[in-house]
Every structure is written in structure tokens, then in C-alpha cells.
Model the fold of this input.
Amino acid sequence: MAPAGRALALVTAVALGCTAVGPALEQARAQEQVTAGLPVIRDTEIEQLMRDYSAPILKAAGLSKQNVKIVILNDRTFNAFVMDGRHIFINAGALFDAKTPNEIIGVFAHETGHLAGGHLMRLREQLANAQTASIIALLAGVGAAVAGARSGNGGAGVGAIMAPQSAIQRSLLAYVRTQEDQADHAGVKFLNATGQSARGMLDLFKRLGNEALFNSRYIDPYLQTHPLPPERVAALEVLAKSSPYFDRTDPPELQLRHDLMRAKLSGFLDRPDTVARRYLLGDHSLPARYARAISTYRHGDLRDALPQIDGLIQSEPNNPYFYELKGQALLEGGHPADAIAPLRHAATLAHGAPLIDIMLGQALIATENTKNAEEAVPLLRAALRQEPEAPDAYAQLAMAYGRKGDLANADLAAAQAAFNRGDVKTAAQLASRAKTRLPVGSPAWVQADDIVTLKQSNAKN
Done:
């Protein structure tokens, strides 16, 4: 999972910087990355931090009511992008590499600039116009090629086909570069409106720009989706340093949360030897201990990990995520009954975080105790009201109903789990069976019928 060819992708698509592909292909690749099974990282602690980073920026942009969600992708390249008006995608690599909260806040400010500027809709219009122009240019080029063949000058005909295509591509890329410049300006504007520095954005561009500087010497600047790094950094530097907040730094408590987030990602995603090199044994900071405790439970002995986790709890007894970690370690270590107490405490401290509630429900069910299963049902149903597309939560709910002997609702929950995993065939089979056990016309029966009807509709199409 080592970073490969990092390039800052603060755009409407995945590719950035030193690339020679057109924006249509970029958007296709972005869609592939999200829909082709690239794992999405779900974690209450990290998601809450991302919300805290982005909320002031979105409010300044007038987008606070659009329910924009931050989606974290398990990809170690440095990348962030938007593909619709409701999501900002950011790679784990960006979170790993950003040294301060202000750097990630700067990323969100730039991406919010794309959202506020309506760049996605305008880019689609440009692509539609380009497609029309491409067809006309292609037809004209084919005519020229035929005429050239008749006159014995076929090479000129091929040039007639390629030249308009190249001009159209350059025009589109120039348009996207303009959008990037606009997003930079808007990002700094939003940072100023929230009293935050643009230094993080500038430092990030400088750092990543230096990495791309060697390659950029050999690239046609007119075939880029973004301004070349020196140009972009120079323009941003003028903007950033003109802000009265340029020298403002992140609060220490926010920096600690940022460092804990990076440590958590490392503990869960990195190999033990990588964690050991990044967080040396002589480092007794809270983030270092967090990373080592996670890595120990993931790759070592639970008996060695638990004292480390208890040490974290002793240091911050009101941190819900340390209790969550203990509960998760015990649950995955085969001790679900012991996991219940720390997960209950985590859920209480986190004030109804659905992902923690789902894990608590899983621990209750794993005890194979009917009373615990009964407690899990309302807990999971409440969590699913906030996470309606979580297949694992539906699967756990199906098990809880099964433990209670409620086979009708067990079938329905299992059908919903299959449906949210994309297995429509299995979902329809389970929903059909649920319908035979549920009162006709009841809300649960209607939900099952909807799944069956959708399967039949898909089959006709």
C-alpha cells in the first residue's frame, strides 16, 4: 500500500497534475474508483473529525443545508475530488500525509470551491458541447481523408482528423484549468470567512509540487487538467499571504485529534514493522501509544494489547474511541460478553454514534443470549435509521430476530442486507419468503414487496 506517484488531485475527478488524459476520461476513472469495489473507510472518530473540519467551510459557502458528506477511500495516494453535489471524496493517503489539520481543511476548502462554483454541472455542459464538436470534426476529417486518398495524399487526411480532436481536447483542458484556479480562489475566500489560515493549503501545494517538479519539465502545459505546480503555487502564495489569518495556527487540541487520526489509520492499515518505524518505542505520546496498541491487537496478542488500551483509557477516561477500541479488540478476539461494557461506555460518551451502536449490537448477539438479542433489536433499528445502507447492520438484525424466533422479520432483514450488498437475486428470494410470513399490507410486508417488485422490474429491463 505504499504511495505511488503521488499527485495532488483537488478536482472534479481522480487524476491530477501531470496527466495527459481528457476530463471525460478523468471522470470515468473517478467513477470506477468509487464504484468498482474500492474499500470505503468507516470510522466514527475519523468521520467526526472530517465533519468538524468541513462544517465551517461548507457553512461559509452556503452549503450547510445540502448534507454534503465526506467519504474516506482506502487508497494511499494523495487525492481528493468531488463527483456530485453531495459528497467530497478524500483518500486515506491525504490524511496520512497531511501534517496539520489546516492542510486537510485547505483541501476541503478547495473542493467546496468546486461545489459552490457549480463546476460539475458546467463541466458536463462543456463535455456535451465537446462531444458535438468532436462528431462534426470527425465527419469533416473523414471527408478530408477520403479526398486525400483520391488525390494520393492520405497523410493529409489523417492529419485533418487528428488536428480538430487535439484542439477540442486542449480547449476542454484549458477550461478545467480555469475551474481549478477558481476553486483555489474560492477556497481561500472560505478560509478567510471562517478565520482560518490558507498556510496549510499553500504548504501542501508546495510539498506536492516539489515532488512533481521533475516530471513537469517534460510535459506539455497545454495538455494538463491543472496549472503546472510552480504556477499554481505562485498564484496561491499571493492569495494566502494576503490573508490577515495567514499566521494563525491550529488549536493544540485539534492538532492532537489530527495526530490521533493519523495514528489510528496507521495502526489499522500499516504492517506492524511500518508502525514500529513510524512510532518508536521511545515515543510515549498519546498518538504513538494509540498506533502501537491498535497494531498489537490487530497483529499480535490480545493479552499484550489490552494493557496498552487500558493505558490509553487511563490517560483520557472520557475518550469514547478508546473504549470503542477495547470493545472491538475483545469482540474480534472472541470475547463478546467482555466487549459489551466498554462498547456501552463508548456509545454513551459518543452520544448515539450509529457505527458504535452497531458494534454493540453485534457483541450482544454474539453472546448467543436471547435477552441480549432482544436488547440488540431496537439498538440496531435505531442505528439503521441513521445508516440505512449498512448491510452488516441488517445482517446483525437478521441474526437478532432469528435468536428471538421471529423468522419473518429475520428474512426481511436478511433480504435488506443482501440488497444493500448488491445481491438483488438473493434479496428477492428472502423477501419473497418474508412476505409469506408477514401480515399482508403491513409496513414490513410492503418493504419485502418493494424488493421483490424491484427484482422483477430489473428482470424485464
Summary: The mean pLDDT is 81. The chain is about 70% helix and 5% strand. The CA atoms of residues 68 and 86 lie 4 Å apart.
